[in-house]
UniProtKB/TrEMBL annotation:
Its EC number is 2.7.7.2. Homodimer. This is FAD synthase. ATP binds at T9, F10, H14, P15, G16, H17, D92. The gene is ribL. Its cofactor is a divalent metal cation. CDD domains: cytidylyltransferase. It comes from Halobacterium hubeiense. Belongs to the archaeal FAD synthase family.
Amino acid sequence: MRRVVAQGTFDLIHPGHIHYLEDAAAMGDELHVIVARRENVTHKEPPVLPNRQRRDVVAALDAVDKARVGHESDIFAPIEDIDPDVIALGFDQHHDDDAIEAELAERGVDCSVERASAREKRYDGELLSTGTIIDRILEQRG
Ligand SMILES: Cc1cc2nc3c(=O)[nH]c(=O)nc-3n(C[C@H](O)[C@H](O)[C@H](O)COP(=O)(O)O)c2cc1C
Ligand SMILES: Nc1ncnc2c1ncn2[C@@H]1O[C@H](COP(=O)(O)OP(=O)(O)OP(=O)(O)O)[C@@H](O)[C@H]1O
Protein backbone atom coordinates (compact mmCIF):
# COMPACT_ATOMS: atom_id res chain seq x y z
CA MET A 1 0.00 0.00 0.00
CA ARG A 2 1.75 3.21 -1.16
CA ARG A 3 0.41 6.21 0.78
CA VAL A 4 0.58 9.65 -0.86
CA VAL A 5 0.13 13.04 0.83
CA ALA A 6 -1.14 16.16 -0.94
CA GLN A 7 -1.72 19.48 0.78
CA GLY A 8 -2.98 22.98 0.13
CA THR A 9 -5.59 25.57 1.00
CA PHE A 10 -8.46 24.31 -1.22
CA ASP A 11 -10.71 27.35 -0.79
CA LEU A 12 -13.43 27.32 -3.54
CA ILE A 13 -12.63 24.07 -5.36
CA HIS A 14 -11.90 24.28 -9.12
CA PRO A 15 -10.64 21.91 -11.87
CA GLY A 16 -6.98 22.73 -11.10
CA HIS A 17 -7.47 21.26 -7.61
CA ILE A 18 -9.12 18.13 -9.08
CA HIS A 19 -6.21 17.74 -11.51
CA TYR A 20 -3.66 18.05 -8.69
CA LEU A 21 -5.43 15.54 -6.46
CA GLU A 22 -5.91 13.03 -9.30
CA ASP A 23 -2.25 13.39 -10.26
CA ALA A 24 -1.22 12.87 -6.62
CA ALA A 25 -3.57 9.85 -6.25
CA ALA A 26 -1.95 8.24 -9.31
CA MET A 27 1.42 8.30 -7.49
CA GLY A 28 0.24 5.58 -5.07
CA ASP A 29 -2.69 3.59 -3.70
CA GLU A 30 -4.12 5.80 -0.95
CA LEU A 31 -4.36 9.60 -0.99
CA HIS A 32 -4.30 11.60 2.25
CA VAL A 33 -4.85 15.35 2.04
CA ILE A 34 -3.75 17.93 4.60
CA VAL A 35 -5.84 21.10 4.42
CA ALA A 36 -3.93 24.17 5.60
CA ARG A 37 -5.28 25.92 8.69
CA ARG A 38 -6.49 29.43 8.02
CA GLU A 39 -3.96 31.00 10.42
CA ASN A 40 -1.10 29.29 8.55
CA VAL A 41 -2.02 30.71 5.14
CA THR A 42 0.17 33.77 5.35
CA HIS A 43 1.71 33.90 1.85
CA LYS A 44 -1.57 35.04 0.25
CA GLU A 45 -5.06 36.20 1.26
CA PRO A 46 -6.46 33.79 3.88
CA PRO A 47 -9.25 31.44 2.77
CA VAL A 48 -12.89 32.55 2.78
CA LEU A 49 -14.24 29.16 3.86
CA PRO A 50 -13.68 27.64 7.32
CA ASN A 51 -11.12 24.85 7.92
CA ARG A 52 -13.72 22.11 8.40
CA GLN A 53 -15.74 23.06 5.32
CA ARG A 54 -12.63 22.97 3.11
CA ARG A 55 -11.70 19.59 4.61
CA ASP A 56 -15.20 18.14 4.10
CA VAL A 57 -15.36 19.17 0.44
CA VAL A 58 -11.88 17.74 -0.28
CA ALA A 59 -12.78 14.50 1.55
CA ALA A 60 -15.83 14.08 -0.70
CA LEU A 61 -13.76 14.04 -3.91
CA ASP A 62 -13.32 10.67 -5.67
CA ALA A 63 -9.52 10.81 -5.74
CA VAL A 64 -9.27 11.39 -1.97
CA ASP A 65 -9.26 8.63 0.65
CA LYS A 66 -8.85 10.81 3.74
CA ALA A 67 -8.63 14.56 4.40
CA ARG A 68 -7.70 16.32 7.64
CA VAL A 69 -7.17 19.87 8.81
CA GLY A 70 -3.44 20.42 9.33
CA HIS A 71 -1.53 20.95 12.57
CA GLU A 72 -1.41 24.45 14.11
CA SER A 73 2.34 24.77 14.40
CA ASP A 74 4.25 21.66 13.22
CA ILE A 75 3.54 20.85 9.56
CA PHE A 76 5.51 17.60 9.91
CA ALA A 77 3.34 16.24 12.76
CA PRO A 78 0.56 14.97 10.41
CA ILE A 79 3.28 13.57 8.11
CA GLU A 80 4.77 11.54 10.96
CA ASP A 81 1.28 10.27 11.74
CA ILE A 82 0.39 9.32 8.14
CA ASP A 83 3.89 7.98 7.38
CA PRO A 84 3.54 8.40 3.58
CA ASP A 85 5.71 6.96 0.80
CA VAL A 86 5.32 10.11 -1.32
CA ILE A 87 4.61 13.79 -0.67
CA ALA A 88 3.14 15.32 -3.84
CA LEU A 89 3.78 19.06 -4.03
CA GLY A 90 1.66 21.20 -6.35
CA PHE A 91 3.28 22.55 -9.51
CA ASP A 92 3.38 26.12 -8.16
CA GLN A 93 3.86 25.52 -4.43
CA HIS A 94 6.58 27.67 -2.92
CA HIS A 95 7.94 24.89 -0.69
CA ASP A 96 11.61 23.92 -1.06
CA ASP A 97 11.73 20.20 -2.04
CA ASP A 98 15.25 19.75 -0.64
CA ALA A 99 14.39 21.34 2.72
CA ILE A 100 11.36 19.05 3.06
CA GLU A 101 13.48 15.99 2.21
CA ALA A 102 16.08 17.03 4.81
CA GLU A 103 13.41 17.42 7.52
CA LEU A 104 11.87 14.04 6.62
CA ALA A 105 15.29 12.38 6.95
CA GLU A 106 15.83 14.14 10.28
CA ARG A 107 12.54 12.71 11.58
CA GLY A 108 13.15 9.25 10.18
CA VAL A 109 10.29 9.34 7.64
CA ASP A 110 11.29 7.37 4.52
CA CYS A 111 9.41 9.29 1.86
CA SER A 112 10.11 10.90 -1.53
CA VAL A 113 9.03 14.39 -2.59
CA GLU A 114 7.48 14.69 -6.08
CA ARG A 115 5.90 17.53 -8.07
CA ALA A 116 2.44 17.23 -9.62
CA SER A 117 1.80 18.70 -13.07
CA ALA A 118 -0.22 21.82 -13.92
CA ARG A 119 -3.61 21.80 -15.57
CA GLU A 120 -3.80 24.31 -18.42
CA LYS A 121 -6.98 26.09 -19.51
CA ARG A 122 -9.17 23.84 -21.69
CA TYR A 123 -11.52 26.60 -22.90
CA ASP A 124 -11.78 30.36 -22.89
CA GLY A 125 -12.80 31.71 -19.52
CA GLU A 126 -12.02 28.59 -17.49
CA LEU A 127 -10.92 29.75 -14.03
CA LEU A 128 -8.13 27.63 -12.58
CA SER A 129 -7.25 29.40 -9.36
CA THR A 130 -9.21 30.44 -6.28
CA GLY A 131 -7.75 33.94 -6.60
CA THR A 132 -9.15 34.43 -10.13
CA ILE A 133 -12.59 33.10 -9.04
CA ILE A 134 -12.67 35.65 -6.22
CA ASP A 135 -11.57 38.43 -8.61
CA ARG A 136 -14.44 37.44 -10.93
CA ILE A 137 -16.93 37.51 -8.04
CA LEU A 138 -15.76 40.99 -7.04
CA GLU A 139 -16.00 42.19 -10.67
CA GLN A 140 -19.49 40.83 -11.19
CA ARG A 141 -21.03 41.26 -7.74
CA GLY A 142 -18.80 43.69 -5.90
C1 LIG B 1 4.54 18.50 3.67
C2 LIG B 1 3.63 19.61 4.07
C3 LIG B 1 2.82 19.48 5.19
C4 LIG B 1 1.97 20.51 5.58
N1 LIG B 1 1.23 20.37 6.73
C5 LIG B 1 0.48 21.41 7.16
C6 LIG B 1 -0.20 21.35 8.41
O1 LIG B 1 -0.13 20.37 9.14
N2 LIG B 1 -0.92 22.44 8.80
C7 LIG B 1 -1.03 23.56 8.05
O2 LIG B 1 -1.72 24.48 8.43
N3 LIG B 1 -0.35 23.66 6.87
C8 LIG B 1 0.38 22.61 6.42
N4 LIG B 1 1.08 22.71 5.24
C9 LIG B 1 1.24 24.02 4.64
C10 LIG B 1 0.10 24.42 3.81
O3 LIG B 1 -0.32 23.37 3.01
C11 LIG B 1 0.64 25.58 3.02
O4 LIG B 1 0.12 26.73 3.54
C12 LIG B 1 0.33 25.35 1.61
O5 LIG B 1 1.44 25.63 0.90
C13 LIG B 1 -0.89 26.10 1.19
O6 LIG B 1 -0.57 26.94 0.21
P1 LIG B 1 -1.20 26.80 -1.24
O7 LIG B 1 -2.64 26.43 -1.06
O8 LIG B 1 -0.99 28.15 -1.80
O9 LIG B 1 -0.44 25.74 -1.92
C14 LIG B 1 1.93 21.69 4.82
C15 LIG B 1 2.75 21.83 3.70
C16 LIG B 1 3.59 20.81 3.31
C17 LIG B 1 4.46 20.98 2.12
N1 LIG C 1 -4.41 24.89 -12.40
C1 LIG C 1 -3.85 24.03 -11.54
N2 LIG C 1 -3.20 22.93 -12.01
C2 LIG C 1 -2.64 22.05 -11.16
N3 LIG C 1 -2.63 22.19 -9.81
C3 LIG C 1 -3.23 23.27 -9.29
C4 LIG C 1 -3.87 24.24 -10.11
N4 LIG C 1 -4.38 25.21 -9.31
C5 LIG C 1 -4.06 24.84 -8.04
N5 LIG C 1 -3.38 23.68 -8.03
C6 LIG C 1 -2.81 22.99 -6.87
O1 LIG C 1 -3.78 22.79 -5.86
C7 LIG C 1 -3.16 22.89 -4.57
C8 LIG C 1 -3.92 23.83 -3.69
O2 LIG C 1 -3.85 25.07 -4.29
P1 LIG C 1 -4.53 26.34 -3.67
O3 LIG C 1 -5.62 25.95 -2.76
O4 LIG C 1 -3.51 27.30 -3.25
O5 LIG C 1 -5.29 26.85 -4.98
P2 LIG C 1 -5.16 28.05 -5.91
O6 LIG C 1 -6.42 27.97 -6.64
O7 LIG C 1 -3.87 27.99 -6.68
O8 LIG C 1 -5.21 29.32 -4.92
P3 LIG C 1 -4.82 30.86 -5.14
O9 LIG C 1 -5.44 31.33 -6.39
O10 LIG C 1 -5.42 31.46 -3.92
O11 LIG C 1 -3.32 30.86 -5.15
C9 LIG C 1 -1.72 23.38 -4.81
O12 LIG C 1 -0.89 22.27 -4.71
C10 LIG C 1 -1.73 23.87 -6.23
O13 LIG C 1 -0.49 23.68 -6.86
